[in-house]
Amino acid sequence: MDKIAKQREDEYIARTEFQRCKKLAAERAARLKQQELEELKLRHWMRCPKDGMELIEIDYMGVRVDKCSHCGGIYLDAGELEKLFEANAETEQGVMSRILGVFR
Fold it and tell me: pTM of the prediction?
């Protein structure tokens, strides 16, 4: 094998090895990112976004809403505002329909 062919083969092997290591590093970073997201979720699970205190689930008009044990803020999960609106619509039109109008 001549010198140029050997050099090209070495370059090819180095490039292939670099690409393999780069792919492994990207996979490691993706796993770490997923792990960080899970840890972040655990740290913030059922915590008030305003002051970080514990959120307590309460029943309001048949819907489980989250209320801060410190500041008293009320937080709704996806779909809960609509459920409250539906519960309110059965009884009377009023504040809930105006609130929902803001979000439409």
Answer: 0.51
Whether residue 55 contacts residue 75, with contact meaning beta carbons closer than 8 Å, is answered with yes
Tell me which residue of 26, 23, 45, 22 sits closest to 34, measured CA to CA.
26
Q: Between vectors from CA 74 to CA 43 and to CA 35, what angle results, nearest 5°? A: 20
Residues 26 and 62 placed together within one structural domain of the fold: no
Q: In whole angstroms, how far apart are CA 32 and each of 28, 45, 48, 73?
A: 6, 20, 26, 33
Domain assignment present for residue 82? The answer is yes
Residues 36 and 69 in one domain: no
Per-residue pLDDT tens for 16-65? 999 999 999 899 888 888 888 888 888 878 888 888 888 999 888 788 88
Residue 55: how many other CB atoms lie within 10 Å: 19
